[in-house]
Amino acid sequence: MNEFRDVMELAGTMIDGLGVIIILVGACIATYRFLRGHCGDGNSPYRFFRQNIGRAILLSLEFLVAGDIIRTVVVSPTLDNVLILGLIVLIRTFLSISLELEVEGQFPWQRHIVRKAREN
Q: pTM of the prediction?
């Protein structure tokens, strides 16, 4: 059983590491595109830069939450750890929604409404 926990601890740590790498690579790509003058579909370069970094952070948050879940539920499933995980997930969910609003200009649940309005 200890071997399984060790493997799950390693898996959680690797997924967390991947989340950090996504932030770093996303920031580097966004910076490169900003310095090269790419600004997308009529956006200001600064806004395009912020959107690209926001997308990288959103993606990395998913990996960081997954790593936390693996380590908390599989490695050390105490009540305190589960409560802390719930708080972490709540905070990261709030961050994700805030970033989504910043990047896309609308809440995630409003996408289908905007898409239908564009089709008509």
A: 0.73
